[in-house]
Amino acid sequence: MQVTDAQLMADRSKFLKNGTTVGITCVPFSGGQPKGGVDDGPVEMVRFGILDQIQGMGYSVELSENMDKYRTMQPAHDPPIGKLKNPRYVSMAARRVAEQVQAHCSQGRIAVTLGGDHSIAMGTLVGSSAVYGDDLCVVWIDAHSDINTPSSTDSGNLHGCPLSFVLGLCDESDVPADSPFAWVKPCIRKSRLVYIGLRDVDAGEKAILRKHNIKAFSMHDVDKYGIGRVVEMALDHVNKDRVLPIHMSFDVDALDPSVAPATGTPVRGGLTFREGHYICEAVAETGCLVALDLVEVNPALGDPESLRQTVAVGCSLIRCSLGESLL
Fold first, then answer.
1. How far apart are CA 294 and CA 244, in angstroms?
2. Known catalytic residue: 296?
């Protein structure tokens, strides 16, 4: 009998009790940023066949229920709090995501979350860390660092802020006791976070990264060292002996716009098709991956070919992260 990619991945896994099952949470949510359409990202990936593709690798799929609730839970009245836009809606969605991801992780499945904008990572990280603890390593693949605090953000868009909440960087004035985000407790250690692909970082975020000595590999590093060496250095920083669980959060805008054009905040000079896939392959090879986010696919941006191209690459990145082999 032919050994499937799913079985090889499960045999390699150091943490998953149910390694041939993928727990998928679809999050059609756009409240963390102003551009409509990103809430249709999960629908388009499902329409493109991602569930069948994962099953074709030998996995069973467990799908979180009631995807449409993310659309219907939006409050009728959600005025800004300070600079933050849609704060109640973002909080409600993130809390629901956290519950669904935690449920998959607690069953020993690899938790795959399809966004939706990157504010949902506030929830995915709370959910996975609830099961795997504060030794959870986070590999954040993105053009942006998404680490603004409520006071440092210029735009007020919460897709640029999720890491500040889970890292405990917000002070009491940022998150008072009556804040919609008071439920989000620090759950990720700063030493367990590493970035790959940065190239558009706000001045306030640069100050935060430097102050807290958070490890980041920009596109300059990718150009200088090559993607293989960068991934090795990134993993060495957060998980030297490859014995800790990894949550990888992949924003498709980490890729160059020529590779993934249908996304809300494209920045030239990004990862190539192969560089993005190599990251996913290398993380899969560690046997440490327990959770994956794939976010910011926006079907409303660009022509039909741009959509097809971006959805196709998103699905391909997911398959590589789940151990799809070239040979």
1. 21
2. yes
